[in-house]
Automatic annotation (TrEMBL):
The keyword Chaperone is annotated on this UniProt entry: no
Source species of the chain: Xylaria arbuscula
EC numbers, comma separated: 2.7.11.1
Keywords: ATP-binding, Kinase, Membrane, Nucleotide-binding, Serine/threonine-protein kinase, Transferase, Transmembrane, Transmembrane helix
GO molecular function, one term: protein serine/threonine kinase activity
Catalysed reactions, semicolon-separated: L-threonyl-[protein] + ATP = O-phospho-L-threonyl-[protein] + ADP + H(+); L-seryl-[protein] + ATP = O-phospho-L-seryl-[protein] + ADP + H(+)
InterPro entries, per database record: Kinase-like_dom_sf, Prot_kinase_dom, Protein_kinase_ATP_BS, SRPK
Transmembrane segments: 514-535
Listed GO biological process terms: regulation of mRNA processing; spliceosomal complex assembly
Binding site for ATP: K96
Biased composition (Polar residues): 1-17
Protein's name in the database: non-specific serine/threonine protein kinase
All copies of domain Protein kinase, residue ranges: 67-462
Classification lineage: Eukaryota, Fungi, Dikarya, Ascomycota, Pezizomycotina
Amino acid sequence: MSANVSETPSVSVCESRSNAKAEMDQSAEPDETLCIGYGLEWVENVKDYRPGGLHPVDMFDMLDGRFEVIHKLGNGGMSTVWLCYQKEIKSWRAVKINKASQSHDDSPEIRIMEILKKDGSVLRSDSHVVMPLEIFWIDGPNGRHLCTVLPLLGPTLTAWRENYLGTDATRINNACYQLTKGLAFLHSRGICHGDLRPGNALMRLKGNGLDEFEPEDLFQMLTYPNRREVYTIEGERSAHSPKFVIEPLCWPELTKYISDDVAIVDFGEAFEKSSPPSSLGIPRMYAAPEILYGGFSPGIGSDIWSLAFSILVIRTCTTLGSTFCAPLCAMERFAGPIPPPFRQTAAEELYKENMRYGKRTGEMEKPMHPEESDQITGEALVGLTTNTTDNSGVHELELELSQELYGEVSAPGDDGKVHFDWIRYRLPETEVKILADLLSQLLKYQPDQRMRTSEILKHAWFKGIPEVVSIVDEEPVITAPEEPSSTAPSLRNHVVRFWESIRTRLPTGRRLQISAPLLVLGITFGVCTIGYRFLTAGVTYQNVRVIRIILQE
């Protein structure tokens, strides 16, 4: 089904809030519908706007009579987060609004906030933990929602690492140190985070952040948000959904206000170590064996396992596997064969996933049930033993850390402007061995055998990092625009990796033979992509485009 993109009249850059509101209200009625693939990045699923789901919020709404919504900061599976201005105190705040189904009086966020409120040290920036300043409740068409108010922070550590830290080993190491220090602070107070990962750490803003700016000033600095209208299948507005879904704020436009200071946030899965929950909602790739397969209760050791994979991701700027079996493969690769008490649960889970995959594709024979045979097909569960005594995990970590990496570096160009180039590099051998030693002591199957945060902070890896080893390449590097978008670097990273994986495996002569057709293919793809984005998304004040999203109730 094709979608008819409707343009609004061209307008100038907003000079006031009233002008911005007027722009948001302008929209032509598209005469066709779009059910899926609505051309936005990093937006919530409109199906979540239903009873028990997300609270509908539009720009310039007033929350709790105090917080005016100026932009969206982000969203997750359980909430949306909004950039709000509190006029009475002339300060910017981040307001997180939970789904109604995830809003409870005994929410972990409320409970942990009350515990740490008694400890004034959490207010210090060197704690590397940011707790909500206050909470309030909203009653809306989808239910009652818990709202938490936080000081305005910057982008996630994930985005900051990918887009700005490049190959700067000192800054990268410092980010990992601060993340570990924040976790140590929580553990020293008997608190487990439960969902530790780079995406749940934010970068602090410099000084007083954006408090020197009024909303009108901020409008001048930011690109107009890309947005889509939301209608029901009958072509009507719904009381359960907002008028628009919009893309989050573009942090690269505010880079000079962002510091390298890390703060751990999002305590929706946090708990006291003396009262562990039966399960946690952490992504599988960061989840410890006891979270995925049982055998032990979640606890401090579970956070340590998550920290290990967080450090690995931050240092190498790579993404972990997203397949169902990826966590199991990573466990066996870096920690050795999976032992009891996890073995049987892992085998049964793998069996069920194979069955589901076979039903979806029809391309697999019915797999053998683990009770029928100990020889489970696949790499993940072959050769299981109760204990491992070799150092295969350390060796595999060294291999992983020794891989060729890609980083973005900035340098002044002949035109006097700053340009961003991609370089290939490797971690120095000295660091590879030290970091592999650290990670191997965190990735233990027995939770009580994992190194504690107080010991981690004293490890040699945090004492000093040698410079990376650049890989000389006679071919030109890929150059990015002066101010790339928040998602562009990671996309280019994938393109570079794909090309290099082909190029490095070919003799020089074959490289010449294959370069021309690939170049033509790449240019064609780029033109098509730019054309599609031009037709379906307007992101400036001068060219605002809207499109209908169908909300099936």
